[in-house]
Amino acid sequence: MQTHQYDVVIVGAGGAGMRAALESSTRARTAVLTKLYPTRSHTGAAQGGMCAALANVEEDNWEWHTFDTVKGGDYLVDQDAAEVMAKEAIEAVLDLERMGLPFNRTPEGRIDQRRFGGHTRNHGEAAVRRSCYAADRTGHMILQTLYQQCVKQEVSFFNEFYVLDVLLTEDLSTGEVPEGTPVRASCVVAYELATGEIHVFRAKSVVFATGGAGKIFKTTSNAHTLTGDGMALALRRGIPLEDMEFFQFHPTGLAGLGILLSEAARGEGGILRNSEGERFMERYAPTIKDLAPRDMVARAMANEVREGRGCGPEKDYVLLDLTHLEPAHIDAKLPDITEFARTYLGVEPYTEPVPVYPTAHYAMGGVPTTIDAEVLRNPTDVVGGLFAAGEVACVSVHGANRLGTNSLLDINVFGKRAGIAAAAYAATADWVDLPEDPTALVIGEIERMRDKAAGERVADVRRELQETMDANAQVFRTAESLEKARDDVRALKKRYLSVSVQDKGRRFNTDLLEAIELGFLLDLAEVVVAGALAREESRGGHFREDFPTRDDEKFLHHTMAYLRRGATPDETEVTLGTKPVTMTRYQPMERKY
Amino acid sequence: MTAVLENSAAPDATPEVGAVPSFDVTLRIRRFNPEASEAAAYWEEFTVTAYGTDRVLDAMHKIKWEVDGSLTFRRSCAHGICGSDAMRINGRNRLACKALLKDLDPSKPITIEPIKGLPVVKDLVVDMEPFFASYREIMPFLITSGNAPSAERLQSAEQRERYDDTTKCILCAACTSACPVFWNDGQYFGPAAIVNAHRFIFDSRDEGAEQRLEILNDKEGVWRCRTVFNCTEACPRGIEVTKAIQEVKRAMITRAF
C-alpha cells in the first residue's frame, strides 16, 4: 500500500474533472485520478455543441436559456442553479475559445451557433441558434483542449487508477447521524490497474467527476466504462442520490447499436420519418417539431413503433432523413455521425435515411450538490471537503430531462466551480485523521472476488441486468414493469455475491475491475427502479403509462434515495426521501412545444 | 490451444425467419502474461459466433466474457472516438471497435496483435507513456502573448479550415505505431506528435510555431519521416497524416505558416 497526500484530489479526467483541475491546480496541490487515460473519457463522444446565449448570429439572452432549461427539465430544475449555468455559459464558451478550442466560425470570424432541441427564442416562440460547436465533435474538442491546458499547467495525473472507496469521518450508512453533525471526507482508496497495488490518497478536498452510469441499460450511447463508480461509492457510504429515476433516452441512437447520432443532425435540418414517410413530429410538437426536447421525441418514436409505423423487417425503428441536405453541408457540419452510419450500418446518409431508435444516454440524477458543487448528505447539510461535478452530480440543472448541449455546459460551468470551491476549502481546512484501516473494505472485496475459485460469471449477471432494465425501465414504465425490474435486480444482487473472476493475476486485471463495476451498476439500477416506482406521475424522462400526467400536487419535489444497511453486511435497502425544488422566476406550466 | 464456444456450432440449415444471420469467426490473438513463470508471448486461437454488424471488439468481448476472462485489452467508447483500442488487426493498425468482422474476410483466422514499438504490458495492452511523452514535448497547447481578449479571438472560416484535419486526432497511437521509423527508433517523435504540432502551427491564433518547429528540427524530429504513408493508412479518423508532416517540413524551410 502506498499513501499520498494532496490538498485536492479529483476523481475522473473527463470534461468536469479536467476543468476543475485547471482551477484547483493553480491554487492548491492537486492530483487527478482517472481510470482511463484523460483523453479517453466519454466527454469526447459528445457531438452537437455547447449552448450559450452569445447572440452571435441572432438575438438571444441568458434568461431565455434559463427558461428553456427549466421548461425542458419539466420544472424539476432548481432555478437558481439553471440561472447560474445560463449566465456563466457565456464566459465558459469564451474560456474555451481562449484556450484554443477550434469552434466553427461565422463569416465575421466569430463563434458560429446552431439550433438545438428545446432551445428557443423568447420563451418558446421558435428555435434559436444558441449552440456553439466544432463540427459534430464538440465534446472531442473540449476534451482535447482541456487536456492540452492540463499539459501546459503540468497537472499531476494518475492514469488507470480506479477509485474504489471514499472515506468519511462519520458512518452515514446507518442513517443515524443527526442533521447538523459535521461530516468530512478524509481520503479515497484507489486500485492501480498496472500493478494491482492499493493506494490511499489523503486529501482535504475530494472532487468526484466520474461521469454517468449508462451501462445499467443494454442499448446505450455510453462507453463500456460508464458504470456510475462515483455515484455508487457515495451511495454505499450513506450519501443520497437525487432524482435517479430520471434517465434520458436519446432519440437518435443507431438502430440496434445505440451509437449516438447527434441532435445536431436535426438542428441542421434532419427529419424523423415513420414507415409511411410521415414527418411524425409535426403531430407531437407542432411548433418546433423535430427539435422538441429529447424525452418527447424519444417517446414519440417509441410510440410510432408501438403503433406499427416502425421501419425495417421488424418494424422496430424509425428513420432519420438527411437526404434533402446538400452533401457538402453534411460533410462540413456532420462528418463524424454520417461516418458512423456508413461504418456501422453500411448506410449512405447522402442518399438513404438512417435507421434510429432511442438509446440510454444520460443520468439527470446523481450525487446532490449545491451550486458550488458541495455534496449534500441530506437536503441541507454538506459533507465538508467533498465535491461533485458533471454527470455524476445533480445540482439540479437538468431536472427531469436535460436539454441537448447542456451537459457540455454543465461540466464546464460546474467543473470550474468545483475546482475553485475545492481549492478554497483546502486553503483553510485542517487535515482530518485517516481512519484505522482505510483500505480494509476495498481489499476485502477484491480478495473475495479474486480468490473465489469458481462462481457466477460477471457477464451473465450484467447482461441480465441490462436486459431487464431495457425491457422494464426504459421509455415507457408501469408499476408492473418496474416491480419486475426491482425483483430481477434484487435477485441479481444475490447472485452477484457468488461472482468470481477467471483472471487471478495482479497486473492489468480488467476482469476483476469489470466485476467491481458490475456491483456499482446493480446498486444504481436498484435506486433508479425504486425512484421510478415511487414516482407515480409522468415528468420529463420518466414516463409512467399508469400515471401519464405530471402531478405537481404530489411530486413537484426531488427524490433523495439512501442506501441503508440492513441486518447483515450484504443486506441493504433503498429508502426514499424528498428535497424541495428551488423556484425563482418560473411557475410550472403545461409543457408544449 | 483452441477454445470453442459451446454455442458456436454452425447455424441450422433453415434459420428462423427474421433471424439475424450469424457466422463463426476465429481470432488468432497474441497473448502475453507478465506474471507467468515463463513470461513469453504466444498465439492463441478462439472461435466464436458473430453477427453481421459485429466488430472485432464485439468478438473479443465475447471471448473475454464467455471463454477466457484473462484476455486483456483496453476499450471504452466502442465507436471510434476515445482511442483506447488501437491494435494490429491482420497486420494493419485499426481500432477494434471500428473494424467490422464481415469486412475482414471471416473465413480465415483474424490475427490480432498489440500495436508495435511500445512495450507490451499484458496481452494487447502496451505502455502508452512514451507515446504521450512525445506528444507533451511538442507543446500541444495554444501559445499566445499579451493579455487575453475580453471576447473571443476572431478567426475566419478559411483560417479555421487550415488546421481542421489535424484537430480530429484522438491520440490512439495507430499512426505512430504503424511507422517503421518509429519501430526502429523509439526516440523519433512519431506521426501523432507531429500531427498535434501541425494543429497549432497552422492555427492563426497561435504564436508558438517557431518554438515547435525548433523542437521538431531535432534529429528525432520531422526529418526522420520517410513518407512511407503507413500512418495515413492507419489513421482511424481519416487524417492525412503524411501530408500534415510534409506541411510541417515545408514550414520549417519556408517559415511560412
UniProtKB/TrEMBL annotation, chain A:
Catalysed reaction equations from the record: a quinone + succinate = fumarate + a quinol
InterPro entries the record matches: FAD-dep_OxRdtase_2_FAD-bd, FAD/NAD-bd_sf, FRD_SDH_FAD_BS, Fum_R/Succ_DH_flav-like_C_sf, Fum_Rdtase/Succ_DH_flav-like_C, SdhA/FrdA/AprA, Succ_DH/fumarate_Rdtase_cat_sf, Succ_DH_flav_su_fwd
Localization terms from the record: Membrane
Originating organism: Actinotalea soli
Modified-residue entries (Tele-8alpha-FAD histidine), positions: 42
Keyword vocabulary terms for this entry: Electron transport, FAD, Flavoprotein, Membrane, Oxidoreductase, Transport, Tricarboxylic acid cycle
Family note: Belongs to the FAD-dependent oxidoreductase 2 family. FRD/SDH subfamily.
Cofactor binding notes: Flavinylated by SdhE, about 5% flavinylation occurs in the absence of SdhE.
Record-given protein name: Succinate dehydrogenase flavoprotein subunit
Chain ranges of the Fumarate reductase/succinate dehydrogenase flavoprotein-like C-terminal domain: 462-593
From TrEMBL, chain B:
Superkingdom in the source lineage: Bacteria
Record bears the keyword Transport: no
Ranges for domain 2Fe-2S ferredoxin-type: 23-118
Pathway: Carbohydrate metabolism; tricarboxylic acid cycle
Molecular function GO labels: 2 iron, 2 sulfur cluster binding; 3 iron, 4 sulfur cluster binding; 4 iron, 4 sulfur cluster binding; electron transfer activity; metal ion binding; succinate dehydrogenase (quinone) activity
Cofactor(s) of this protein: [3Fe-4S] cluster; [4Fe-4S] cluster; [2Fe-2S] cluster
GO biological process annotation, one example: respiratory electron transport chain
Binding note for cofactor: Binds 1 [3Fe-4S] cluster. Binds 1 [4Fe-4S] cluster.
Alphabetically ordered keywords of this record: 2Fe-2S, 3Fe-4S, 4Fe-4S, Iron, Iron-sulfur, Metal-binding, Oxidoreductase, Tricarboxylic acid cycle
PROSITE patterns linked: 2FE2S_FER_2 (PS51085), 4FE4S_FER_1 (PS00198), 4FE4S_FER_2 (PS51379)
Root EC class: oxidoreductase
One Pfam match: Fer2_3
Substrates-to-products reaction catalysed: a quinone + succinate = fumarate + a quinol
Assigned protein family: Belongs to the succinate dehydrogenase/fumarate reductase iron-sulfur protein family.
Protein name as it appears in the record: Succinate dehydrogenase iron-sulfur subunit
Species name: Actinotalea soli
Taxonomic classification: Bacteria, Bacillati, Actinomycetota, Actinomycetes, Micrococcales
